Prior knowledge:
The protein has helices at residues 47-59, 78-86, 103-113, 127-134, 139-151, 172-181, 201-205, 210-219, 251-255, 281-285, 290-302; strands at residues 5-6, 12-13, 15-19, 64-68, 93-98, 117-121, 158-163, 185-190, 222-225, 232-235, 241-245, 259-262, 267-269, 277-279. Helix 2 (78-86) runs parallel beside helix 3. The chain has a 12-stranded mixed β-sheet. It is of the alpha/beta class. It binds S-adenosylmethionine and iron/sulfur cluster.
Amino acid sequence: xxxxxxxxxxxxxxxxxxxxxxxxxxxxxxxxxxxxxxxxxxxxxxxxxxxxxxxxxxxxxxxxxxxxxxxxxxxxxxxxxxxxxxxxxxxxxxxxxxxxxxxxxxxxxxxxxxxxxxxxxxxxxxxxxxxxxxxxxxxxxxxxxxxxxxxxxxxxxxxxxxxxxxxxxxxxxxxxxxxxxxxxxxxxxxxxxxxxxxxxxxxxxxxxxxxxxxxxxxxxxxxxxxxxxxxxxxxxxxxxxxxxxxxxxxxxxxxxxxxxxxxxxxxxxxxxxxxxxxxxxxxxxxxxxxxxxxxxxxxxxxxxxxxxxxxxxxxxx
Length: 317
Ligand code: SAM
Ligand code: SF4
């Protein structure tokens, strides 16, 4: 049995979310990547480096890796990144969060490289609203990408919808139906005032999930709470599945957080909402041994706080 990383508060850590680039081909109005420093060519981790980090992480008991960004698919070598991780023994769940715009061309290549499943961001089915939210007029490409991902076997496919007041909050049931028709799970995400979100966006577009939750409770035939995070999942009579992803300031969310993050420039980040990082890629490039890299992982886990406690609640104006 592989060793488990466990923090001071008894939380096991078995997930790693790797940002493979800060670059993106969209400009979503709410994106918390807005303030991220672009990753320079020499700063960006190579597929081999990411594979080595995945191996070290796996030997410490990490079994789930999610690739994110920026937009992972803008990296021309993204299939190599996937292949370098899928070659690592012990990774049981290898997934990617993507805006889906390039999946029509890439889904089979990514599946062949070992990607198991994808989350595709889809806030609206209205082309005009899609353009307004993402800055790109390419809803049709994303829909094609979703079909390609399903054909390539990247399942279960999840659709990520950020709930936005006055923009898509009346469209939830249309997206529920669309997700059901594609046998996908719809994740409705509450807008977060994370570091990097443009000024004023939260005040203008934030919509709490509680009204939707009340409607789902009335319609659902079954509700389960996932072990990994405090996310209720609703099973509707017509077969639709809807998950609600609440804000990170929620202590119940933190109490079940089992993951670390790796930034696109190779730093371990202890929490999405906190600034602390530990450099991993610097030591790796200076010739650190696997044991030395494991010590950095252990230090990061030891530094985890019990829950995210901002000076001021970031999700209230
Ligand atoms: N580019 C990829 C995408 O859009 O799916 C991956 C990176 S994106 C930062 C990951 C997820 O975070 C997306 O589902 C996106 O909708 C969500 N997201 C971005 N900014 C957010 C915010 N301020 N509040 C809540 N979710 C946000
Ligand atoms: Fe941010 Fe993803 Fe939108 Fe790009 S596609 S702007 S990374 S949320």
